[in-house]
Amino acid sequence: MRVHHRAWIVWAVGLVTYLVGVMHRTSFGVAGLDAAARFHAGPAVLSGFLVLQLLVYAVLQVPAGALLDRFGARKLLAVGALTMAAGQLMLALAGGLPQAILARVLVGTGDALTFVSVLSVVTTWFPPRRVPLMTQLTGLIGQLGQVLSAVPLAAMLHTSGWAPAFVSAAALGVAVAIAAFALVRDRPPSAPPAPPAPSPRAVIDGLVSSWREPGTRLGFWTHMGTQFSGTVFALLWGVPYLVAGQGMTPGEASVMLTLLVGAGIVAGPLFGEFTARHPLRRSWLVLSVIGTTAAVWTVVLLVPPPAPRWLLAVLVVVLALGGPASMIGFDYARTFNPGHRQGTAVGIVNVGGFTAAVLVSLAVGVLLGLGAGYTPGAFRMAWTVQYAVWGLALTGVLIARRRARRKMATEGVVVPPLREALAARRRDLP
């Protein structure tokens, strides 16, 4: 019971650290138009801020996983929070583009260390049956950080000004870094001692072995196809699109971002419980979310702007499903890899969605710049770049799923076709 109580404390502190990290990650999204005016940045330059931040995040995912396997979650959480706080402080004081760009690099660096560390806390401190649900709760409650940026940070930005808003964000980052270092522990007291730190050669071998595992690649494509659209929307282009492309006020756009977070929090536990109960059918949930997201975007883009508010709300709710669905990718990494290389596998999976987000964010900014700027027509054209990523991700999921099932069959686990499984289920019903 004592260890169980401590598990919740350790998880809660790690969760708050991640939540504040999400606030840092998404803070530039609510400040996008303010940043454009402050730094005299056009659409392509503005997208460059997010592209660089996410590129740093994506590139560092695999090294972060290796560092996690070597140094543990406690140190990485504290260092990540302090790094993001330094970035926010630099952004608060930035007088030009070079300082602002370096600030977002620091935010991306600290962000890369945070999420894989929180997932490590979950897998280490909770029994395997609870891990899928706890992973969903971690990811979805952590997304409340978007609310911190969309509401109090945005309000402070528009009332007190640029510097006070980002200095406050930096101070909050320092506070959670101290809490993480003081209260988080890498493993329960009763757990066996950690294995010795791997050598550089062992790290490389673990990386290669993780990528060769079909389940890791299935997680990679899952994360890519489900996560990128909502990430691009929440981190940078959602507010400009809703305001300049759909005629909303900044306040209405903030409500939409809050709806995105709330819908994700509702969906997260449901997705987690489905994953725990039906581990052999996880991919069907992934495919459904990708297909639904593409379909709703198609409807929105076909409707002449401004689209009805209810339709935009439906779009936001569907985008919110991408976060919980992307967590299934981490569940693939956990279940298809041994414990000593799960940090590396999680890092590989996390590269998928954020690499796609980098490419789509950059493409949207370039297309807006080639068009008429922040206009409804330019936004409609720019958002179409998403279809290429959905097509690539769907192909990757289907190929990796087939190879993963083939490997499972050699290990004695046969996944029957869905039609046969449903027929058997109907026969078993009283």
Automatic annotation (TrEMBL):
Transmembrane residue ranges: 7-24, 44-64, 76-95, 101-125, 137-157, 163-184, 220-243, 255-272, 284-304, 310-333, 345-369, 381-400
Protein name, as recorded: Nitrate/nitrite transporter
CDD domains registered for this protein in UniProt: MFS
Pfam families: MFS_1 (PF07690)
Keyword Cell membrane: yes
Keywords assigned: Cell membrane, Membrane, Transmembrane, Transmembrane helix
Origin: domain of life: Bacteria
Major facilitator superfamily (MFS) profile domain mapped to chain residues: 9-405
Compartment list: Cell membrane
Topological type in the membrane: Multi-pass membrane protein
